[in-house]
C-alpha cells in the first residue's frame, strides 16, 4: 500500500508561484523550446456545449414562482411570467419563461415543441405525486425540496438536460469505468456513507426494484410508486455529483420487478429520462417497440441495453450470444451482457467473444460483458466498461460474485495487470507548507486497493534536471507538480524529457500547450508493453549506461512502449468550481476580470474561461501569454484609470460578470477595490444572475485588508474559495495519474471539510 515520505493534514490548494515570492526566471511561457513535443490528440471528454437553444419554460406550482428566477439565475438569463404557452413566441428567445401549473394545464399539449422546452418544477413539500398530466406532457421534470434547497442539484439537472455538459463522452474516454449499486430499500440509508461508498465508482445505480415503499399498515408496496421513486432519485442526486443509472430489474433477471406489464416499464423508464437521469437500464426482453421508443425519446440520457442469463446454459461461442449482441446494439448507447457460468475457461470464451464482436461491429456502442458467480470473478478484472462493483458497507450484493473496486485492483495487481508504481508529488522549498497531500493520496490508494507507492519530494528552484532522478525510472507511475513548470523550460533544460519519443519530446495535451505550464505528468503505456508484477527497487539516483557501459545523462530507462504525457489539471478544477452552481451558458459571451502577478499564474484561469466561451477578458497585473492571446477571447488590460472607467461604463450585459483573483493574500486591498468597482449593482446585467468571484489565494497567508470573499458577498457576488478549486483539481489529478475516480465529496471529506 501507499507509504508517504512527507506528512501533513490534507489537500489544500497550491498558490501561484509569484505569491510565494519565488519564481523560476527560466520559465517563460512564450519561450521557444529547442525540441517541440508531439501533440496528444486524445482529448478527455468534451467541454461545455451550447446545447438546446429552445426557450426554457418552467411550469411551477402554487406559490412557487420564485423557482423560475432560480432557473434563470443558474442559466444566466432574465425571466418573465406568462399566463400560458400560447403567449410564448420567438420574441422570448434568451428569456426563461414561467407559467403557473394551473394556467399550463389548458394548452401544454398543443405547445410548439420546436420553440420551447417545458420543464415541470415540483416542490415535494407541496405533496406527492405531482400533477400527472403535467408530468407526462412536459419534456422534463425537476423535483426539489424547499428547505434545504440544493442549487448545485438544479445546476447539474439543467446543464445535463439541455445538453451543455456530457458525462458519457467523458467516461467512455477512461481506460476503465465502474458503477456501484445502492442496494438499500431506502436510498436515505446510504447517504451518510455515500462519500466513501462511491470512491472508485464512476456512476451510481439506483435499483428501483429493490426499493421498498412503506404503506400505512406497516407493509410495503409490491411495486414502488413513481412518486416514491422520484423522491429517491432526488435524494440521491442531491448527495452525489456522479451520474445515476436507473434500473428496474425484472424477476427473471434476479430482480423484483414483475414482468406481466411491459408498458409499466416504459412508464417508469421514460420518467427517469424526464428526471434527467444520465443512464437508463433497458432490459432486452422488453418488446422492440418499447425499446425503440425509449431510444428515440432519450434526450441526453444514455440507454444501457441489458441482458442477464441465470440459467447456467448460456455459451459465449454460441450463435445465440451473437444474436443477443446484434439485437442489443439496435437501441443502445452501451451494450451490457451478464451471465452465470460453470467453468473457469468460459471467462476466456467471453474475452474471445468481446474481441470478435469488436472486429465484426467496429461501430458498435461500448460493450460491458461480465460473468457472474465466484467462477466468473476473473472476467470482472478484464471488463473495462461499467464493471458493477460492490462495497462492504452495502447490505447485499446486487449480483453473485460482485467485487469491490479495491478487490478488483488487488486482483489486477496479482495478475500483473496493475504493477506497483511510484507516484511523486514534486514541489519546491517555497511550497513546502502548501502541499500537505501525502496522507490524502495514501487514503485514496488504500481505499482503492492500489499497490502504488506515493512520496512527496522537493526539487531545487531553477534546477529542472533534478526531476530526472524521479521520472526516469522503470516503475515511474506519474507525478503532480506544484508549482507547475513551463513545458518549454522542461524540454530546454532536461536531456531526458527532450530525448523522449525518439527526440520529439513527450506528448503534450492541448491544455498544457496553450496554458504553457505542466502540473501533471502521466505515464502512457502501449498495449504491447509488458507489465512486471514485481518491479525493481527504486534507485535514489538512477545511473544510465550505454552499450559500452559509458554513463549517458538523460538517457531514458523507461519500459518499452511507454511514453509520458504532459498535462494541466488546474484549469479543470477552476472550470468545475465556476460551474458548480451555474450552468455553462451563464458565462457564454460574458466578460471577466483576471488578476494575477504573472502570465503563468493567470494562464489556467484564462484557459478555463475560454472553455466557458467568455467573450472578453480584462487583465490586471500581467502580460497575457501569446498562445492564449492568439487563441482565446478578446483581451483588454487595465493599464490606466481610463481603461477601468471604460469597463464600468459599458452596458450591463457587457460589464464584467466574473472576477478571478490569483493574487496573494497580501494584495487583498486591490482585489477588494475592484470587486467594489464592478459589484455596484450586484447583478450580472439586465437579468437576475449574481456575479461570480473566485479567489485562488492561499487562505493561510496573512491578508492585508479585508477578506475579498466577504467583500464580494457584501457586493452581491457569489464567492468561491481556493478550497473548492483545489478539491476539483485533485479529482482530475487522480483521474489522470491512476485512471480512477475519487469523488469531489470524498476529497472534501478527507480534507476535513465535509459538504453536509
Automatic annotation (TrEMBL):
It holds the Pfam family DHquinase_I. CDD domains: DHQase_I. Coiled coil: none annotated. One of its GO terms (molecular function) is 3-dehydroquinate dehydratase activity. Residues 1-45 are annotated as: Disordered. This is 3-dehydroquinate dehydratase.
Amino acid at each position: 500500500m501507499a507509504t508517504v515520505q512527507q506528512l501533513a493534514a490534507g489537500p489544500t490548494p497550491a498558490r501561484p508561484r509569484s505569491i510565494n515570492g519565488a519564481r523560476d526566471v527560466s520559465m517563460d511561457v512564450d519561450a521557444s523550446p529547442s525540441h517541440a513535443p508531439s501533440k496528444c490528440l486524445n482529448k478527455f471528454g468534451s467541454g461545455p456545449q451550447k446545447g438546446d437553444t429552445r426557450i426554457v419554460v418552467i411550469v411551477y406550482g402554487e406559490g412557487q414562482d420564485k423557482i423560475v428566477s432560480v432557473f434563470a439565475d443558474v442559466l444566466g438569463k432574465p425571466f418573465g411570467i406568462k399566463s400560458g404557452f400560447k403567449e410564448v413566441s420567438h420574441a422570448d428567445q434568451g428569456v426563461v419563461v414561467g407559467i403557473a401549473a394551473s394556467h399550463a394545464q389548458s394548452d401544454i399539449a398543443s405547445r410548439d415543441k420546436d420553440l420551447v422546452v417545458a420543464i415541470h418544477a415540483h416542490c415535494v413539500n407541496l405533496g406527492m405525486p405531482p400533477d400527472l398530466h403535467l408530468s407526462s406532457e412536459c419534456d422534463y421534470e425537476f423535483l426539489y425540496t424547499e428547505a434545504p434547497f440544493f442549487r448545485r442539484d438544479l445546476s447539474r439537472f439543467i446543464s445535463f438536460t439541455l445538453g451543455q455538459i456530457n458525462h458519457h463522452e467523458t467516461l467512455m474516454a477512461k481506460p476503465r469505468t465502474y458503477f456501484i449499486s445502492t442496494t438499500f430499500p431506502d436510498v436515505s440509508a446510504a447517504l451518510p456513507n455515500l462519500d466513501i461508498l462511491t470512491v472508485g465508482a464512476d456512476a451510481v445505480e439506483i435499483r428501483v426494484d429493490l426499493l421498498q415503499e412503506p404503506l400505512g399498515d406497516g407493509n410495503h408496496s409490491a411495486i414502488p410508486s413513481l412518486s416514491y421513486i422520484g423522491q429517491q432519485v432526488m435524494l440521491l442526486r442531491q448527495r452525489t455529483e456522479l451520474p445515476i443509472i436507473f434500473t428496474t430489474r425484472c424477476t427473471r433477471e434476479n430482480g423484483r420487478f414483475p414482468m406481466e406489464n411491459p408498458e409499466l416499464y416504459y412508464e417508469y423508464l421514460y420518467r427517469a429520462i424526464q428526471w434527467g437521469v444520465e443512464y437508463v437500464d433497458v432490459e432486452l426482453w422488453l418488446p422492440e417497440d418499447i425499446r425503440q421508443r425509449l431510444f428515440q425519446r432519450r434526450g441526453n440520457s444514455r440507454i444501457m441495453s441489458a441482458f442477464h442469463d441465470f440459467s447456467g446454459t448460456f455459451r459465449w461461442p454460441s450463435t445465440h450470444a451473437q444474436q443477443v449482441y446484434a439485437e442489443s446494439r439496435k437501441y443502445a448507447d452501451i451494450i451490457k451482457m451478464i451471465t452465470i457460468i460453470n467453468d473457469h475457461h468460459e471467462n476466456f470464451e467471453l474475452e474471445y467473444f468481446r474481441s470478435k464482436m469488436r472486429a465484426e461491429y467496429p461501430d458498435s456502442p461500448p460493450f460491458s460483458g461480465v460473468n457472474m458467480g465466484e467462477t466468473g470473478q476473473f472476467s470482472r478484472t478484464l471488463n473495462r466498461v461499467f464493471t458493477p462493483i460492490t462495497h462492504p458497507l452495502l447490505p447485499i450484493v446486487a449480483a453473485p460474485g460482485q467485487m469491490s473496486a479495491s478487490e478488483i485492483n488487488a486482483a489486477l495487481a496479482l495478475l500483473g495487470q496493475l504493477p506497483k508504481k511510484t507516484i511523486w508529488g514534486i514541489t519546491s522549498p517555497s511550497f513546502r507548507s502548501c502541499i500537505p497531500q501525502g496522507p490524502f493520496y495514501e487514503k485514496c490508494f488504500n481505499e482503492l486497493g492500489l499497490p502504488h507507492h506515493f512520496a512527496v519530494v522537493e526539487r531545487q528552484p531553477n534546477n529542472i534536471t533534478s526531476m530526472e532522478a524521479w521520472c526516469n525510472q522503470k516503475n515511474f507511475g506519474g507525478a503532480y507538480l506544484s508549482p507547475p513548470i513551463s513545458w518549454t523550460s522542461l524540454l530546454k533544460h532536461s536531456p531526458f524529457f527532450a530525448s523522449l519519443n525518439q527526440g520529439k519530446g513527450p506528448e503534450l495535451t492541448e491544455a498544457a500547450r496553450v496554458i504553457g505550464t505542466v502540473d501533471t505528468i502521466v505515464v502512457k503505456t502501449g498495449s504491447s508493453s509488458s507489465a512486471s508484477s514485481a518491479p525493481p527497487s527504486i534507485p535514489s539516483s538512477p545511473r544510465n549506461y550505454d552499450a559500452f557501459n559509458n554513463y549517458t545523462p538523460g538517457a531514458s530507462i523507461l519500459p518499452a512502449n511507454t511514453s509520458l504525457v504532459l498535462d494541466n489539471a488546474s484549469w479543470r478544477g477552476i472550470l468545475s468550481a465556476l460551474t458548480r452552481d451555474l450552468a455553462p451558458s451563464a458565462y457564454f459571451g460574458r466578460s471577466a476580470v483576471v488578476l494575477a502577478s504573472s502570465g503563468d499564474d493567470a494562464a489556467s484561469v484564462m484557459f478555463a474561461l475560454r472553455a466557458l466561451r467568455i467573450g472578453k477578458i480584462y487583465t490586471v497585473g500581467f502580460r497575457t501569454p501569446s498562445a492564449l492571446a492568439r487563441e482565446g477571447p478578446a483581451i483588454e488590460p487595465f493599464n490606466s484609470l481610463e481603461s477601468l472607467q471604460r469597463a464600468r461604463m459599458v452596458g450591463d450585459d457587457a460589464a464584467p460578470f466574473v472576477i478571478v483573483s490569483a493574487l496573494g493574500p497580501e494584495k487583498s486591498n486591490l482585489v477588494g477595490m475592484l470587486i467594489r468597482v464592478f459589484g455596484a449593482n450586484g447583478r450580472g446585467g439586465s437579468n437576475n444572475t449574481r456575479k461570480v468571484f473566485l479567489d485562488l489565494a492561499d487562505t493561510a497567508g496573512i491578508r492585508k485588508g479585508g477578506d475579498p470573499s466577504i467583500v464580494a458577498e457584501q457586493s452581491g457576488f457569489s464567492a468561491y474559495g481556493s478550497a473548492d478549486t483545489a478539491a476539483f483539481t485533485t479529482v482530475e489529478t487522480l483521474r489522470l495519474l491512476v485512471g480512477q475516480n475519487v469523488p469531489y465529496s470524498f476529497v472534501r471529506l478527507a480534507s476535513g471539510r465535509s459538504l453536509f
